[in-house]
Amino acid sequence: MAGFSRPHPHSHRLDRPCTGGSHAMSATTSHTMPAMQPLRPETSLRFACRPGVICFNECCRELDLALFPYDVLRLRRALGISSGEFMKKYVLVTQEDGQVFPICRLSMVDDGRASCVFVRREGCSVYADRPAACRAYPVGRGASFRGDGSLSERLVLLQERHCHGFAENCERSVAAYLEAQGLSEYNRFNDALLRLHQHPRVLDGSFVPTERQLHRYVLALYDLDRFRRLPGRAAIQMATRQEALPDKDEELLLLAIDWLVRDFFGP
Ligand code: SF4
Ligand code: SF4
């Protein structure tokens, strides 16, 4: 969604100090809000996260991690479970004051430290498929449409006192860091959501979704297996001018976004 989220951290299974790092979006209770410093892609970033750092895994606790639909797609595929099972087991859906659309958060473990359900002693157990916020940390990324319809990207450095990654001897540009985290693929799907989240009717406050539309939002974006089997899929195909719903989840997610835009705001 638009705006910056507070990441969290950390990494895993990194043997090479310059290759890791992760974190998640969050707004936690025990960590103070990080200082946010605007960044440019060419800005030099001194940072690395690896198992040997004194704070290893600390950033995967007491965090508030909002998931994008593509995060769920990747995680549930990595775990080999259905999207419905993933949502039931790992996701808390909330509708919050001031938010037009529901927020899907990764549920935390009740271990007294609110640890991420995927963190292990040796690091992130889903590292290859970790959420976008975990990848970008300590960089926060916000995207929006300009008046001419082009995409504008804002980057900030989220520097938290508990994170010792800034003391590591590893320096490269912000762009190179984000590229190394495999973020561009995630950005492709997350930015596609701007058509929903930054639709003029959302921005001017005139769009107030019905209960049915809120339900459709979560179903179509986060539970692709059920979306694919919907009894009303013929209507979805017609609305999106598709002869059949795509087999590939990535294509289905983009179609789901297209369908929701048409369903909510008209053709
Ligand atoms: S260095 Fe920072 S990102 Fe890495 S584990 Fe420590 S707190 Fe988390
Ligand atoms: S998904 Fe992985 S990187 Fe992200 S918070 Fe959980 S354990 Fe940490």
TrEMBL record:
The protein's matches in InterPro entries, at most eight in alphabetical order, are given as: Puta_zinc/iron-chelating_dom
Pfam families, per this entry? CxxCxxCC (PF03692)
Residue ranges for the region (Disordered) are 1-36
**Which PANTHER family would you find in this protein's record?**
PUTATIVE-RELATED, YKGJ FAMILY CYSTEINE CLUSTER PROTEIN
Q: What is this protein called?
A: Zinc/iron-chelating domain-containing protein
**Source species of the chain:** Desulfobulbus oralis
